[in-house]
User: Which sequence fits this backbone?
């Protein structure tokens, strides 16, 4: 039953449908979702603890990585609890204001993630192309300034969406064909003209994720040009190996992000359950994989992880 505010045709609550066509399998789908969520929480929390406890890791790359991990923790925590509640208890209702808040956090936090990845690629570019000036270019003050700029960019550019959607009329239905409140899923419920909202969404997407991706590609083109000028093959391989973790993280983030973005606007022939499943992968898998990738590929983080495990084991043995 649809509950509307009669003054401006706004529903008091939305109903999240979940994954259309797979409602009977929600309880089974929730198992990997829950495991991924727990791994994301533990992995990113451990990464933050490792970097905080080791002064040798207080370098630009790891500071940007900490910013990325903090963003991942907030992103997964703003979506997964409600998704799991939907899957486990059929808790479909979400109030209008909570839905807009969730939508804002999802899009602003993913925008911040993109910015932090650009910051990490900037660090790789300076470290490889201008190694002697790395410490003078990327000073702690510069890192803090870049981090604040990235956060403000995501917070400010995405805030109009929540305010604009707040005053639109939703006279079609209050059923959201998704597992969470997503911008395009909400716009499809609006009866007013939404050309301005869609155009603003495209502009913001290009100025954030699109522009970040272009700049990341440019940075790696310059890195490759520098690497291929090195005298020995061993030096080239050693230099490129320092970028492997970041490249994997970029692919894990941008591949499902671009698929989700393009399928919403141009992939009308794609089955809804495929689109929604990919949209969930876009929110779940990168936060889980980021600490794993850096833990496997980065010796310092791997050593810090084993150090934490050793300390925990010794403390547990003493208690027992």
Assistant:
């Amino acid at each position: 039953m649809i509950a509307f505010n009669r003054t401006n045709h706004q529903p008091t609550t939305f109903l999240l449908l979940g994954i259309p066509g797979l409602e009977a399998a929600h309880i089974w789908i929730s198992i990997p979702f829950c495991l991924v969520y727990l791994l994301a929480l533990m992995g990113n929390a451990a990464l933050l603890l490792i970097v905080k406890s080791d002064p040798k890791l207080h370098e630009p790359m790891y500071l940007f990585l900490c910013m990325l991990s903090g963003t991942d923790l907030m992103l997964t925590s703003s979506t997964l609890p409600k998704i799991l509640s939907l899957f486990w208890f059929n808790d479909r209702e979400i109030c209008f204001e909570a839905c807009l808040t969730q939508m804002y956090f999802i899009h602003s936090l993913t925008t911040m993630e993109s910015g932090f990845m650009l910051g990490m690629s900037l660090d790789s570019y300076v470290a490889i192309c201008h190694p002697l000036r790395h410490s003078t270019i990327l000073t702690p003050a510069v890192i803090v300034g870049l981090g604040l700029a990235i956060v403000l960019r995501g917070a400010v550019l995405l805030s109009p969406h929540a305010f604009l959607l707040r005053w639109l009329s939703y006279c079609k239905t209050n059923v959201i064909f998704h597992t969470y409140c997503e911008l395009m899923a909400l716009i499809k419920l609006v009866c007013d003209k939404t050309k301005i909202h869609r155009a603003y969404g495209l502009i913001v997407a290009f100025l954030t994720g699109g522009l970040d991706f272009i700049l990341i590609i440019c940075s790696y083109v310059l890195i490759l040009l520098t690497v291929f000028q090195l005298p020995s093959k061993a030096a080239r391989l050693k230099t490129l190996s320092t970028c492997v973790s970041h490249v994997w993280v970029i692919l894990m983030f941008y591949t499902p992000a671009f698929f989700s973005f393009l399928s919403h606007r141009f992939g009308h022939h794609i089955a809804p359950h495929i689109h929604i499943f990919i949209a969930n992968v876009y929110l779940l898998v990168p936060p889980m994989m980021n600490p794993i990738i850096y833990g496997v590929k980065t010796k310092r983080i791997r050593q810090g992880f084993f150090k934490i495990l050793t300390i925990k084991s010794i403390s547990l043995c003493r208690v027992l």
